[in-house]
Amino acid sequence: MIPYTKTAVKLLMEGAKALAKVEGDGIRMDVEYLDRTIKKMSQKIQDLETNLKQNEVAKEWRKVYGAKTNFGSAVQLGKVLFDVLKYKSSALTASGRYKTDEATLSSIDLPFVRDYLEIKKLQKIHTTYLQGIRREIVGGYLHPFFNLHTTRTFRSSSDSPNFQNLPVRNPELGKMVRRAFIPRPNGHLVEMDYSGIEVCIAACYHKDPRMIEYISDPTKDLHRDMAMECFALPKSEMSNPTDEEDRKRIKQIRYCGKNMFVFPQFYGDWYRHCAASLWQATKQMKLKLRDGSSMRRHLAKKGIKNLSGFEEHLKKVEDFFWNKRFPTYNQWKKDWFRAYQKNGYLLTKTGFICQGHMRRNEIINYPVQGSAFHCLLQALIWFVRHDLKKRKMQAKIVGQIHDSIVADVPDNEMAEFVPLAKEIMIERLRERWKWINIPLTVEIEASPINGSWADKKGIKE
DNA sequence: AAACAGTGCGCG
DNA sequence: AAAGCGCGCACTGTTT
Predict the structure, then answer these.
(1) Are strands A442-446 and A145-147 parallel, antiparallel or unpaired?
(2) What is the pLDDT of residue A3?
(3) Less Cβ crowding at N or C end of chain A, within 10 Å?
(4) Does the CA dihedral A64-A67-A68-A74 come out positive or negative?
């Protein structure tokens, strides 16, 4: 993929300059907190390891491997569990070895395996995040790199450390890491997030009227609707929560619809794979109905008794999704792929050409992923190279995560900064790129004054 | 010692 | 007809 039009080249050049400024400014870090937490974490992991090594399974492991024993080796673990102890292996890797990822291992009901997974998780936090970040801090500031030249789709990437994959989905671990990121004195860390930008940008390509309706009407909710269809639930089960717990229950089911059906389908997944993850989720996430009965039981009542029955059901859901619900989107995918087959390249809305040997799913996804990021990049360029400078503001952009921008804003500039952010990211962008014919929305969260990134909350506007 | 493939896992 | 897109980092085990 190479930049094609003049405007695309300009976007990359200005983007590189803006990001260089972001890298140079850096983000302030709470080094004392980090050092303290690294120490605590090392101790905790060491204790858990000592415990693990006394387990019967560990003894068996040593019997097999002797001096070569390495509790960090997933290959050894696989042999011990599946060859020696004869547990049933449910999946193999691409090269035919036993799979030992969390999804596979969590089905084995052994204290050893549970503890092993717990240690793994903590080790990831310790080495990749806490230590990995600490190593890169200079003079109290962290300067992650943001690259525009590494990615197939002309998104960005980040490294040393990667600022774009800090933990967040697990709230406890997310907070532990994000607590280390702080604003400059008397400032706020502010995160501005384009909501559902890839879905919006996809709609600018395919222009499916029913999808546009979903995006434009705030009372509509595609993820919830698809969760309902996937699990054969009536609307009453997914609306008007009775209490806080019920709200969480609905949220979990919606999460499954979003991340195990809707997004995978957009990216070119198919019903069997979706069925497998959803089916597993009913058990692993212990999905329930309002009366407390299990999702599996509910499905059984609907005549869906096992995975293959669920696959059949998902096949119908998928068919309806593409052929009845979003036929225009479906047709666009076909036409878009055919055009690539004929021409040998594709052109994105932001002026980039992708060429070379690509698979169908790549053809569908690259233009969307790239253009969505370019919206963010253009906004970031305006912030860094135009508006903040012109207004002589002290606010700084300190990072970027594909569809969100992180800024460090002095308390006395907040009232100016927030409306400016909305103006740049929504109005000005739509003015510049007329092909964006979908309303964009931006969610803004901020830390309290002098508070860390872990404490960010939605702000009143 | 450095490079590489394979695996797993963090994020959008 | 084919069958999730894009990244970076740590670690193991092998090859150069």
Answers:
(1) unpaired
(2) 61
(3) C
(4) positive
Q: CB of A366 within 8 A of CB of A354?
A: yes
- What is the pLDDT at residue A460? 76
0.85 exceeded by pTM: yes
Residue nearest to nucleotide C10 (CA to C1'): A128
Q: Which two tokens stand for residue A43?
A: 């101790």
Residue nearest to nucleotide B12 (CA to C1'): A402
R_g of chain A computed on alpha carbons: 25
Chain position carrying tokens 């006394």: A54
pLDDT digits (tens, 9 = 90+) for A182-208: 999 999 999 999 999 999 999 999 999
In whole angstroms, give the CA distance from residue A452 to residue A317: 43
- Asked whether residue A403, judged by its CB, lies under 7 Å from any atom of the DNA or RNA strand C, the reply is no
Q: Kindly report the bases of strand C lying within 7 A of a protein C-beta atom.
A: 1-13
Q: What is the pLDDT of residues A41-65, one digit of tens each?
A: 999 999 999 999 999 999 999 999 9
A257 touches strand C (CB under 7 A): no
Q: Which of residues 12-71 of A touch strand B (CB under 7 A)?
A: none
> A130 pLDDT band (50/70/90 cuts)?
very high
Bond before A264 cis per omega within 30 degrees: no
Q: Which helix (H) or strand (E) holds A347?
A: strand A345-347
Instruction: Tally the residues of chain A.
Output: 461
- Within 10 angstroms of residue A319's Cβ, the number of other Cβ atoms is 12
d(CA A114, CA A96): 24
Please check whether residue A64 is in contact with residue A80, taking contact to mean a CB–CB distance below 8 angstroms.
Answer: yes
Q: Does at least one atom of strand B sit less than 7 Å from the CB of A101?
A: yes
Q: What is the mean pLDDT of chain A?
A: 95
- Give the distance, in angstroms, between residue A66 CA and nucleotide B10 C1': 33
Nucleotides of B under 7 A from a protein CB: 6-12
A169-189 pLDDT, tens per residue? 999 999 999 999 999 999 999
Residue A30 has pLDDT above 90, yes or no: yes
Look up tokens 């919006």; give the residue: A200
Contacts 24+ apart (CB under 8 A), A322-331: A322/A265, A325/A210, A326/A208, A326/A210, A326/A211, A327/A208, A328/A206, A328/A207, A328/A208, A328/A209, A328/A210, A328/A211, A329/A202, A329/A206, A329/A208, A329/A211
DSSP letters for A381-406: HHIIIIIHHHTT---EEEEE-SSEEE
